[in-house]
Amino acid sequence: MRFPILTGLVLMSTGLAVADPTPSTDSTEIGFAEVRTLGTLNGQALACRQFDTSSNAKALMIGHAPKTRRYGTLFETATNAAFLAATKDGTPCPTEADLAARLAKSAAALKAVFPEHANPEQASPEASAPQPPGAETSLPNDETGS
């Protein structure tokens, strides 16, 4: 009878017995609220077929948020939830100007939280624009082996 009690005490003291296997969605984490808002705007833009706004939201996420699984998952989860909510309840879509203004406000908040992660080359939508068919992409010298 003593072995299970001792095992339980050891597990409790190491924290293994109470460890939560699900990732935290605590809004007190640095930048979680800003990333969640950006994902929500992305989902609304997708549901309302405002693809330019959605592209801008993704570019902001890539250019300013840390490149970790937690932030990426949070962005995708918020995007999916907002998309499903917008398509399910049938609320009217915001105007492009309204959604763009909300995105600009969200971008300012994200940049304020993560100024060190700013990558202007990736943050602009033009940098991630698709190349025209037949156009060759130039590689830096270190990638061509020259």
Automatic annotation (TrEMBL):
Range of residues in the leader sequence: 1-19
Biased composition (Low complexity): 120-129
Lineage: superkingdom: Bacteria
Assigned keywords, A-Z: Signal
Region (Disordered): 112-146
Protein name: Rap1a immunity protein domain-containing protein
Species the sequence originates in: Thiocapsa marina 5811
